[in-house]
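Narrative of accomplishments. A recurring question from our advisory board has been how the design workflow behaves on a single, concrete structure rather than in aggregate. To address it, we present the structure tokens for one chain from the evaluation set, followed by the sequence designed for it. No filtering or post-editing was applied between the two.
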């Protein structure tokens, strides 16, 4: 599907659905392919769903999908993608990892959506590769797989691998494929069918722009929050933050209190604690390592700050990941 020498019609892709996969991600991936078939008047794309054992698998919203078979029924398909969302590692078995390696060595394009790249990385397929995954899993992935370039993008193509951050970004990936296989005009026509008014580039950011998240368009404040986001592991002194933001310390304090209701120190700590919560929920890391990864010098300091902000200790997040 990705490689130029593959010209089969229809283009075939199989989706391996892991328990609690994202339904919106799956539908966003396949509906543009259906739209392309409808517009072209012939079957340019064919897809199927498989599960680990051939049994129905429920999405994160509880809706079950009846697969066409098990993962072993699509060993000869030219493209296979893992669709996963919550707790994908719970579904990982030695057999699944062997199957993914066999697909890769057999010449198939191998993809992963949302949290699926965690499974590919666990299989050892992504060393030295460029990938993306959902922003909630991104920090944890970077901590765990240091030899993979994990980007905060909508989708990444690094043949023979393709990865997508999930949600509606899967539509942008499918539209990119349609444009590559056929034409930009066809991709635009399909996009308009779904009222998808803008086909986003692969490197568009996953999250809202800093000004929308902060609820303000003040350029100085936006710049300061962006600098904070880029320096969570090794927090900057507030005086240095002001210097890098090209404003005075006094103006920095005023901007945060006026627009965000808290001083910059408090806002900065909240950002670090939010990142810590994502790591606790999505990474298999001890509390003291999460503390260091989020700029807290000790586990005790981190625990006090976490309890004060969220109302419970960080260890509670690891016991309840639902």
């Amino acid at each position: 599907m990705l490689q130029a020498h593959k010209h089969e019609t229809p283009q075939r892709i199989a989706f391996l659905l892991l328990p609690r996969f994202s339904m919106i991600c799956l539908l966003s991936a396949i509906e543009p392919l259906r739209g392309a078939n409808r517009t072209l008047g012939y079957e340019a794309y064919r897809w199927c769903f498989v599960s680990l054992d051939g049994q129905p698998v429920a999405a994160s919203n509880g809706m079950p999908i009846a697969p066409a078979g098990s993962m072993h029924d699509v060993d000869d398909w030219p493209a296979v993608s893992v669709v996963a969302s919550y707790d994908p590692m719970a579904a990982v078995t030695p057999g699944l990892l062997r199957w993914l390696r066999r697909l890769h060595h057999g010449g198939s394009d191998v993809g992963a959506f949302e949290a699926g790249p965690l499974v590919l990385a666990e299989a050892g397929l992504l060393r030295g590769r460029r990938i993306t995954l959902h922003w909630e899993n991104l920090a944890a992935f970077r901590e765990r797989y240091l030899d993979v370039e994990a980007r905060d993008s909508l989708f990444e193509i690094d043949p023979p691998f393709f990865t997508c951050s999930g949600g509606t970004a899967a539509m942008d990936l499918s539209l990119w494929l349609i444009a590559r296989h056929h034409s930009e005009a066809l991709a635009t026509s399909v996009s308009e069918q779904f009222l998808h008014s803008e086909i986003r580039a692969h490197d568009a950011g996953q999250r809202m722009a800093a000004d929308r998240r902060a609820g303000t368009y003040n350029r100085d404040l936006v710049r300061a929050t962006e600098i904070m986001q880029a320096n969570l592991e090794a927090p900057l002194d507030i005086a240095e933050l002001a210097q890098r933001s090209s404003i005075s310390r006094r103006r920095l304090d005023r901007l945060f209190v006026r627009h965000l209701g808290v001083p910059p120190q408090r806002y900065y700590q909240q950002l670090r604690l939010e990142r810590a919560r994502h790591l606790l929920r999505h990474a298999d890391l001890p509390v003291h390592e999460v503390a260091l990864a989020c700029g807290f010098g000790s586990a005790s300091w981190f625990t006090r700050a976490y309890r004060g902000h969220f109302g419970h200790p960080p260890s509670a997040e690891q016991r309840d990941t639902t």
